[in-house]
Structure formats: structure tokens, C-alpha cells
Amino acid sequence: MKIGVLALQGAFIEHVQALRQLGAEAVELRQLPDLEQPLDGIVLPGGESTVQGKLLHELGMFAPLQKKIAQGLPVLATCAGMILLAEKLTNDSKLHLATMPITVKRNAYGRQLGSFFTEAEFGKLGKVPMTFIRTPYIDSVGDGVEVLAAVDEHIVAAQYGKQLDLAFHPELDVAKSTGIHEYFVSLCVAK
Ligand code: GLN
Hints:
Elements: E1 2-6, H1 13-21, E2 25-29, H2 32-35, E3 41-44, H3 49-58, H4 62-70, E4 75-78, H5 80-85, E5 86-89, E6 100-105, E7 116-121, E8 127-132, E9 137-141, E10 146-151, E11 154-160, E12 163-166, H6 179-189
Parallel strand pairs: 1-2, 1-3, 3-4, 4-12, 5-6
Antiparallel strand pairs: 6-9, 7-8, 10-11, 11-12
Glutamine binds next to helix 5.
């Protein structure tokens, strides 16, 4: 089980640690050759989606990454990662990987707001801790997308095939729960 964590910018170390804690091999993806090794899954971390998108292009990683995800490689995307996967953004004309039929609102509570902690039901996992930081949320989902969690009537987690998209940061709450990373690892195992 080898999972690549995109390590260009943002909160990637915490994902690497969470996956290693669960016994998975986690490798940092920093340049094109890192993407060319056999991987069972990919994590797109939180951070700043505009910067991440720009770096993916500059490093020649954008198209190969998009192709892998479109072909079904499991992906766990958190926050900025969620924005990278969205097929549509309500308040930004610049799209990125656009592999998931969801409409996402960036900085949905305003740039400085939208940072809070709560606990809410997540799919079959029951309640999980959720840390939100300048959070986006999902405005609407297209055909075939399963909604996994909502907070205050806003969708904050969804799944499309093996693309798991979260508005919050499970990597920051690993001390409380590793449930979401375990769920993602189970998606990577079930080929
Ligand atoms: N608001 C950020 C963006 O647009 C995402 C915030 C986050 O990843 N914590 O990229």
C-alpha cells in the first residue's frame, strides 16, 4: 500500500504522518518523477488552491495527475484539494483538475471567517471531528455523487467513485480520530 501525498504547499506533513500511523507507506509527491511510481492512492492536502494549481502546471504534474484521477486512482482531497477537484466554482472562473461533478464555493464564509471546529455525522462512520479553515463548501452535486456529511445545511463531504472530497481537515484531528484516513485506505485497498 503506497499512497502519494502532494507536497507542493499546505498541510501535507500531517497527512503523511496520519497514513504512516495506519501502517500505509506514504510518499511525498514533489516533482513529476514522484508521480510516475506505482501508487495506490493520492492525497491532495489543504492550503491555497490557486498556488497549488499554479505549481502543478509549472512542474508539469498537472496533466498526469488529472489523468490518474480520471482513470480511477483513489484520491483524498481536503479543503484546497476539494477546490482542485471541483468541476465548477461558484465564485472563481479558474478551474483546476475538474474531475468531480460538484460545484464548490471558495472561502464560503468570507476570507477571514469560516474557521471553526465541530463534530458531525460522516457517512457510515458516525460522528467525526471536523476542523474547518477558511473553508469552502459544496453548493451542489451532480449525478453519481454521494453526499457524506453536511454542517448547517452545507455539504462538507462527498464521494464520487473513489474521489473523496472534504471541506475540513481530518489530518489535524488524528489524535481524536483516524476514521477518515482509515476509510480512505480501505478505498485504496479495494481495487
Ligand atoms: N480557501 C483556500 C483556497 O481557496 C482553502 C483553505 C484551506 O485549504 N484551508 O485554496
